[in-house]
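Input structure tokens:
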């Protein structure tokens, strides 16, 4: 990682040197040395682009000019390694790691949220069957009794299987009209005799409206 980042920085036109603080995958800082005739603003943009490609944010604190060592007096021997030259401009870059955001993973005790998808009522030789589907692909089927309200009871039973994972009893369905809209309120009773209620505007037919209201009754916080 460090070698690749240094190589990419050195490939930017106008950069003559690059130093990385730290040997890990995320350097603590970067210092680049610019050529004398380099345009600091253009180089800075390229540096930021390279750093962003490596998942880091940058804040430039330069450029600044390093003081040059005074030239040797006339006739003095040249220092080891060659002649002394003035250092060009140096741009300092402070980096902040930008780790990738972890993917949202539901907690084992908190299954991914689902919603009601559809409700189907099938009539056949053996009677009426209600099929309720959730958005996660699961379905539940319940047989409707021939007595009045049998379809409502079957809808609630199927919704209870998908949401509560247990049987529930339909206490009653109340239909009211509010400003021209039909609102269905469903009261259900769980196996522990706890009662819950949910309401929904009736859309797409009564079975679907009852299912929406029952879904809210089973999934809403206590």
């Amino acid at each position: 990682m460090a070698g690749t980042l240094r190589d990419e920085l050195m490939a930017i036109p106008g950069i003559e040197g690059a130093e990385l603080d730290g040997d890990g995958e995320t350097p603590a800082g970067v210092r680049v040395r610019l050529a004398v005739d380099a345009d600091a603003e253009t180089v800075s943009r390229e540096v930021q682009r390279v750093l962003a490609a490596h998942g880091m944010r940058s804040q430039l604190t330069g450029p600044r000019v390093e003081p040059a060592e005074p030239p040797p007096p006339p006739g003095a021997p040249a220092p080891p390694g060659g002649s002394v030259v003035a250092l060009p401009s140096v741009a300092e870059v402070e980096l902040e790691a930008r780790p990738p955001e972890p993917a949202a993973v539901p907690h084992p005790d908190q299954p991914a949220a689902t919603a009601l998808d559809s409700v189907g009522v099938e009539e056949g030789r053996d009677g009426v069957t209600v099929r309720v589907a959730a958005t996660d692909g699961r379905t539940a089927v319940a047989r409707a009794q021939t007595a009045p309200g049998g379809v409502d009871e079957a809808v609630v039973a199927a919704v209870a299987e998908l949401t509560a994972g247990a049987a529930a009893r339909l206490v009653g369905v109340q239909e009211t009209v509010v400003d021209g809209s039909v609102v269905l309120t469903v009261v259900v009773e769980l196996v522990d005799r706890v009662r819950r209620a949910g309401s929904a505007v009736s859309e797409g037919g009564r079975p679907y409206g009852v299912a929406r209201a029952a879904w809210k009754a089973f999934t809403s916080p206590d």
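Helices lie at 2-10, 40-53, 150-163, 206-219. The first helix runs from residue 2 to 10.
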